[in-house]
Amino acid sequence: MAAMPTVSKSFLLFVILILMIMSLATAQPSFVKYYCDDNNGNYTANSTFQANLNTLLSKLTSNTETNTNYGFYNFSKGQNQNSDKVNVIGMCRGDVNTEACTSCLNDSVVLLTRLCPNQKEAIAWYDSCMLRYSNRSIFGIMEFEPSYLISNNKYATSVDRYNEVVEDLLRSLASKAASGDSHLKFAEASQKGPSFQTVFAHVQCTPDLSNLQCNQCLFRAMSYIPKCCSGKVRGRIFKPSCNLRFDTTPYLDPTYVPPSLTPQSLPSPSPSIHATFRKGKSNSWRTVIAIIAAIVSVMILVTFTCIYLRRRKPRMYFESESEADYDIEPTQTLQFDFQAIIDATNNFADANKLGQGGFGPVYKGTLPSGKEVAIKRLSRGSGQGDIEFKNELLLLAKLQHRNLVRLLGFCLETGERILVYEFLPNKSLDYFIFDPIKRLSLDWDRRYKIIQGIARGLVYLHEDSRLRIIHRDLKTSNILLDEEMNPKISDFGMAKLFATDQTLGNTLRVVGTYGYMAPEYAMHGYFSVRSDVFSFGVLILEIVTGHKNSDIRHPDSGYVEHLISFAWRNWREGTALNIVDQTLDNNSRDELMRCIHIGLLCVQENEANRPTMATVVTMFNGDSISLPVPSQPAYSMNARVPLDTRSDVSRDNSMQASSTNEASISELVPR
User: Spans of biased composition, class Polar residues (predicted)?
Assistant: First the structure.
């Protein structure tokens, strides 16, 4: 009898230890992301809305319809819309088995109702499932926001090639997923990438969407990749209606078999672990321990949750601690349906065609309101069209400046990629400046105004906007003119986004237009804000002279000379006014000389010697500011080429500066 207390104490310590372990094991895992919408109304305890919500959430995890739903559930309960009616969507990742799906949704139900204790709308994502509920209609409606974008900080060994593989893989998966039925819209695959890496990926839509809606959602998600995940070995994008992931580490269930392949022969889910405790006398002890552990863990979790919720601000995105995230706000541009585009252009009639660009035709369109727009229809066979489309949509939707072309909307339907811009009646700068007759309408005052407007637009891109943008393809055809001949920088398909503290980028795929490209970019792939400064310097010289950058011909000697070399030679010889367009008068001699001087400062061979665009604007506005003496510019050595071999040399240089078919890759026609 004396030994009994000792045994009891040991057993009690054992039970406490088990409780601690069980408490840790049963603690709710954190969401990858969750969102509580305070703007859609709140409900009170014991209200009809709460009763309906609890009923649906209980039904969601009852595991009675899993085998036929492929992990997708959409339930409704209640009569009064926006009052007591509740709509619930639960969806598991397509490769997740029945047991894991039920477990994930159960965790979601427990945690989301705690973190969003009285909001009528909330959404949360785990790696394996999503839970969403609302008092408004959410079935069959494609929604992009709220979004969550996440990536790790490791880059692929060959960034550009890796991006190509990821893009190709996701695009092929999107079409497969969209063709799924009302039970499952999910596709996964892997593909060999650079340096023997294998890229694993999946895409998924909620099956209540149509094929077209699924495609639109996934392409919209993919358009955000340059912002969050370009070159990263892992990227994930979560949206209410779709999600995607790519990774170099396998993450999908290796036993997954697409239901469409063998719907009748799917393996039965493995017996639950809890099933092993259904018989035997120890079952009651384990049940008691599990209940006590669950109560303890719930009390601990509720305590910490209450403390946390007091500090929580409404409408906040809650981020994972382990990986950096990028929240992208919804764009303010309008999504046009394809029929509206057809109506606006009279079914892309030739009479409305403004020209043919490097990626497809541009049409003039008229909206039902009477507003005129320019519509760029990217060619389906364009090799870089998708990249350009995503870049331009992502960047221009966020940039607003009077010297940048304004993006009004886009269309992504039936494989079409269409961008809708403000209509600028005077087309582009090259339409005027290189035409011997039309250039007469550009007197010096207008040309000087155009130069200064371009400079202000670049300062905004480089320093004043929320994003730091390197345009990479600044040229006369990408400077559009409004009805008052004000310049607007266009075509951001080749633009690059820099971090605020980033000063230099590098790429293996040099794209742009030879003659405007800075030497460090053309030869080595290095680009920075000083690359745009170089292109701006070439633009100044073209505007002042009325000549294209490689169009200075010397018939007597049989040579053609680069404009930069021509300007530098005359500058050194004291005859700089000889390069000025002869249609201009000499009444603005000082301004002309100052522009030539600034242009030569911008095209100096050493990028460190080039001024920033902010400094350039100061140089224009401060006549009393003395300008430094320019050093030797790029393209001033060996710049003369025999006239009879000019076309061959130009072609060879273009091929050297770019990948195949990438010279002058973003040639944009006048609008």
Answer: 652-664
Q: Are residues 547 and 608 in the same domain?
A: yes
What CATH number is associated with residue 403? 3.30.200.20
**Whether 125 contacts 41, CB under 8 Å:** no
State the residue for tokens 């400094």: 615
Burial of 262 (0-12, 13-18, 19+ CB in 10 A): exposed
pLDDT (0 to 100) of residue 381 = 52
Which helix (H) or strand (E) segment holds residue 596: the answer is helix 589-602
Task: Tokens for 86, please give them.
Answer: 């509740």
Residue with tokens 């990217």: 378
Distance, in Å, from the CA atom of 373 to the CA atom of 380, rounded to the nearest integer, reads 22
∠ CA 494-371-489 to the nearest 5 degrees? 25
Provide the domain count of the chain.
Answer: 4
Strand, helix or coil at 38? strand
In a domain, 291, yes or no: no
Q: CA quadruple 96, 100, 105, 108: dihedral positive or negative?
A: negative
* Domain extent for 132: 25-139+298-309
The string of DSSP codes covering 513-525 is: -TTTS-HHHHHH-
Supply φ then ψ for residue 172, to 5 degrees.
Answer: -65, -35
In a domain, 14, yes or no: no
**One-character DSSP codes across 437-499:** TGGGG--HHHHHHHHHHHHHHHHIIIIISSSEEE-S---GGGEEE-TT--EEE---TT-EEE-
- The pLDDT value recorded for residue 457 is 94
Residue 69 lies in a domain: yes
Assess if residue 662 is contained within a domain: no
Burial 430-445 (b: 16+ CB within 10 A, else e): bbbbbeeeebeebebe
Q: Residue 420 forms beta bridges with which residues?
A: 375, 409
Find the range with the poorest average confidence among 1-5, 440-444, 487-491, 635-639: 1-5
* Co-location of 133 and 198 in the same domain: no
Which residues make Cβ contacts (< 8 Å) with residue 553, sequence separation at least 6?
559, 560, 561, 643
Active site residue 473: yes
Give the pLDDT confidence of 110-145 residue by residue, as tens digits.
Answer: 999 999 998 999 999 999 999 999 998 899 998 988
Q: Catalytic pick from 84, 386, 473, 532? A: 473
Question: Are 125 and 29 spatial neighbours (Cβ–Cβ below 8 Å)?
Answer: no
Tell me: do 494 and 625 sit in the same domain.
yes
Is residue 121 located within the same domain as residue 84?
yes
